[in-house]
Amino acid sequence: MVLVKLNLLPKMELKVFPVLLTMSMILHQITRKLLVVTKLQKLYMTLLAGAVSSEVTFSAAQTKTSQYYFYNQLGMIDEVVREDGSSLFYDYFSRNDSNPCNRDKLQYVYDKDTLIREFVSYNSFGYPTEVVEYNAYYYGYRVVTNLGYGTSGNNFGKLTSESTSVYDSSDVLVAGPFTVTYSYDSMGRRQTVQYPDDTYYA
To answer: Does the predicted TM-score (pTM) go above 0.70?
Structure first.
C-alpha cells in the first residue's frame, strides 16, 4: 500500500524525499552529539576544581622529577605538589578588585607555613608592576622589585626597568634600590642592558 502511494507522488517529490530523510537523520545525529557535548561540559566544569595535571622532567643526569598541578574552577593553578610531597598554594585577586588591572591575577604564592611571594599590582598589559619576595628565601628580609614597561616605540609593552630594594623585618631599607634597564630594537629583541654599576651591554 505504501509503494502505491509513493508511486503517485510527483517525480520531484520522489527525488527530494530521500534528501529530506537523510537531512533529518543527520540533524538527529547532530542533536544527539550536542546533548552529549553539553553533558560533558557540565561534567568538566564540575570536575575542574579538582582537576590534576602532571609534569615529568629529566635533568642532564637523566634524573626523573615529577610534580602535580591542581586547578580551580577558572582553570588557574590552585596548588602544585612537588616531588618531595611539599605543596605550593596560589591565591588570586578578586574579580571585583578595586584595581581592574588586578582582577583574577595571581596575588600570593605560599607553602603550608610561609608566604613566599606577593604580586602587589599589575598594569593594563596584565604584567606585574610590583613583586615582593618574603623570608622563605631571604631569611627574614623582604625583597621588593618594581617593574617598568615601555609605553611607546620599540619598547612598547616590553620590560624596560627592574628596581630592587631589600627591607628587614622592621621594614627598614637595608639595600638598594638597584636598577637594571633594558631597551629593544624594531624587531622587539632586547638590544641593551644597563646594570646598577653602569655596566652597559649592547
So the answer is: no
Which residues 6+ apart lie within 8 Å of 121 measured at CB?
Answer: 99, 101, 102, 128, 129, 130
pLDDT in tens, 99-132: 999 999 999 999 887 888 999 999 999 999 999 9
What is the DSSP track for 158-201?
A: SEEEEEEEEE-TT--EEEEEEEEEEEE-TTS-EEEEE-TT--EE
Residues 6+ positions from 174 with CB-CB distance below 8 Å: 141, 166, 167, 168
HSE on the CB side for 194, CA within 13 Å? Answer: 8
Beta bridge partners of 181: 161, 194
Give me 171's grid cell: 621594614
